[in-house]
Amino acid sequence: MRIGQSIDIHPLKEGRALILGGVLIEHDLGLDGHSDADVLCHACMESILGALALGDLGKHFPDTDPLYKGANSIQLCAKVYEMMTQKGYRIGNMDATILIEKPKLAPYIEQMRENIASVFHCSIDAISIKATRGEKLGFVGHQEGAVCMAVCCLEKRV
């Protein structure tokens, strides 16, 4: 068994899509970044990379590489899944918390769980996704950005 954790942060800005866990969410602000800036997928991927001692996302998908400009993070998750299986591991469970002031994410959580479970080829019961607000405090509360924290437990494949 191996454990990894991660945190990902992206600013919010007008004119960008808000994509979390591969779900397009209607909102007037979206996450800004080199890829689609999906903080949920990024934190999940990096927790897996951490558990495998493979470094961070920037090592594998550098923001200086035009190949990843606007990249779909669910597709990047598939590449991390390949790395994980090549090392002989599978998801035991994953727990993620998204911090974003608006919009409320409850209506989207199940689809996010389904997307993450599907790309990492595990049971939806192995994926927990929660959301909370910044209560108008700090950059999250002022709607300047969003954060996601994730932890995963990887099990050796048998």
From TrEMBL:
Cofactors that this protein relies on: a divalent metal cation
2-C-methyl-D-erythritol 2,4-cyclodiphosphate synthase domain sequence ranges: 1-154
Catalytic activity: 4-CDP-2-C-methyl-D-erythritol 2-phosphate = 2-C-methyl-D-erythritol 2,4-cyclic diphosphate + CMP
Gene3D superfamilies per UniProt: 2-C-methyl-D-erythritol 2,4-cyclodiphosphate synthase
Matching InterPro entries: MECDP_synthase (IPR003526), MECDP_synthase_sf (IPR036571)
Gene Ontology MF, one: 2-C-methyl-D-erythritol 2,4-cyclodiphosphate synthase activity
Pathway note: Isoprenoid biosynthesis; isopentenyl diphosphate biosynthesis via DXP pathway; isopentenyl diphosphate from 1-deoxy-D-xylulose 5-phosphate: step 4/6
Annotated site (Transition state stabilizer): 34
Residues reported to bind a divalent metal cation: 8, 10, 42
Cofactor note: Binds 1 divalent metal cation per subunit.
Top-level taxon: Bacteria
UniProt family annotation: Belongs to the IspF family.
Subunit structure: Homotrimer.
Function (record text): Involved in the biosynthesis of isopentenyl diphosphate (IPP) and dimethylallyl diphosphate (DMAPP), two major building blocks of isoprenoid compounds. Catalyzes the conversion of 4-diphosphocytidyl-2-C-methyl-D-erythritol 2-phosphate (CDP-ME2P) to 2-C-methyl-D-erythritol 2,4-cyclodiphosphate (ME-CPP) with a corresponding release of cytidine 5-monophosphate (CMP).
Protein name (record): 2-C-methyl-D-erythritol 2,4-cyclodiphosphate synthase
Species the sequence originates in: Faecalicoccus acidiformans
Phylogenetic lineage: Bacteria, Bacillati, Bacillota, Erysipelotrichia, Erysipelotrichales
Gene that this sequence comes from: ispF
